[in-house]
Every structure is written in structure tokens, then in C-alpha cells.
Hints:
With 337 residues, this protein is α/β, with parallel strands linked by helices. The protein contains twelve helices and ten strands.
Amino acid sequence: MPFVRTIGRRMITSLVLTVVCLHSQGQTTEPLTVPPYHNLPTTEGYFEGAGGVRLFYRVAGRQGDPIVFLHGSGGGLNIGGYDMEPLAERGHRLLMFNERGAGRSEIITDATKLRIDDLVQDVEAFRERFGLDKFDMIGVSWGSAVALKYITRYPQHVSRVALLGPISPTFALYQERLKHLNSLKTEKEREQEKQIREKIRTAPDSEVPELCNELFQASHREYVVDTAHLKRSRQDPCAYPVAGLRNAQFVFQSGLASLGEWDFRSDMKKVKVPALVLEGAETHVPLSEAREWVKSLPDARFLLIPDAGHAIFIDQPEAVISAMDEFFRGNWPAGAK
């Protein structure tokens, strides 16, 4: 009978988590990818991005000021997206989508359709899909570049922007970042990461999720103050369809290549909205990068999160959520300079 009771609980849980998801060809009922945060009203579905690309979205909260979350390149919402949902509990409405090419969105293997301009137009399609006039933004890592480009192209729609561990402001600084981060690994560790990436492309489907998790653990250990923190995320970082996992690196490389030898500082100077830049006090990424963002953005402040590495929302989730909550309410959080 314990088995029957377990099955019963699972069935009830499945029913509780079931929501109506809007799809491009009508409506269907499916369980949420991750349970709602503290029973917040939560919906998932698909919408058409630029050029008709099918993109996965999730919305937490029905009321409050809208905040659009943009994740890092090559993956999806599993790294950081679901961890932002406490903002909805605090009275905001969090809207996010999986960028094109990987994760739960349409797989794209044409690099000419994975440029940063395509991603910017996907944000605009997302805005139109949900009828947003003015909204705030959160950009994590690569998402900060997409947010910057969107704001310079559509400044009338954005009120405030928070940038978490933003991408290097210039190509030259990015090269220095890579060199420094690589120096923290042994030759054996670097070779192991390379081999895992190659295996993900060719291994049987059944082996890909585990390989993805091995790569995540290896590639993110320099980003946190304690590797045990990597288990804090509300979702497995590799819980995607296998096709999305295989294509993640291609998406990342294609987006980065579309920037050329970039220098975002001229675009930063065009941004008129308040910007909060957050980084971890214990990060291995040179702090000069975050400071360059603050220096170049006309109305920006810098907040260092104590006892946190580059992945600040993993090391210190409460501190990050509290700071952004205060910022999106119209105030600079304590300690922002």
C-alpha cells in the first residue's frame, strides 16, 4: 500500500502543477517545467519570435510592474530564471523566455539566425505578445548585452535595468577574462572540459544530460565561493531536451561571433535609464569590467555582493533579490555606489 499512496501523491501533485499553456497552434494542458514559487500564479507556453521562431516563455505573477529577464547565452531559464521568481512574490510580475536555438525553444543551426540583432527582435516580439508598454529588465551575463542593445534601439519601452555579472564591455577585456579564468584550471581540467564538450555532440542521447551536468560543474566552479551552492538552483541546469543541450555551444559561439571585436561603451553612453550593476565581491572575473559598465552608463551604480562569486544569484540569492526589489521600486539599494 505505500506504493499506492506514493502514486496517489504524485498524481495529485501533477494535477496541482498543471496549467494552461498557450501554444502556437492552440491551447494545451501540460505540467509546469518547475513548480510555482510559493503557489504564485504561473503560466508557460510558446510565442512567435522574430521570423516566426517558436520560443518558450514563463510568467510568474499576474500583477505588479513587469520585469523581463534575459538569461545567459546557449542555455535557457534553468540558470537563474526560475531563481528570480521571488521577485514576483514581492509584488512584481516576472516575464522570461528561452532564447532561440537551444533549451526549450526552437533549435536553430543556422548561425545567420542567431545574431544578437535576432535576439533583440525576439525581445520586441515578446513585449508585443504581452502588450507591455514600459517594463524593467534584468540581464545576466550575455543577457546584459541583449538588454543593452534592446534599450538603445527601443529606449521608450524600458524604465530600469539590472545587470548581473555582465558580459565583458569590450572584446579585449573578454580575452583577458578568458586568459585569467583558464589560468585557474590545470591543463588536465581544461582538457577534460574540452573532451566533455566534444562528447555532448556525439554521445548517445541517454548520456547527454549527465555529460551536461559534468560540464556545468566543471565550468562553473570558478564562479561560486562554494561549489555546494551549485545545487541551490530551483531547476537542474541540464533539464532540457537533448537537442537543446547539443546545440547550446553553437548558439553561444554564434551569438558571440555576431558581435565582432565589440566595444559596448559607445552604446552604454546612450542609455538614459537607471542601471544597477551587480557583481560578487569574491568573483574571479576582473572587477574592472563591472566598473567599466558603471563608468560608461550615464545613470548607474555598482553593488558588490559580499561572500559571492560571479554567479551572485547562486551564492547569495536573498541579497540579490532584495537589492533588485528595492531598485525596481525606484530606489538605489543600500551599498550601491
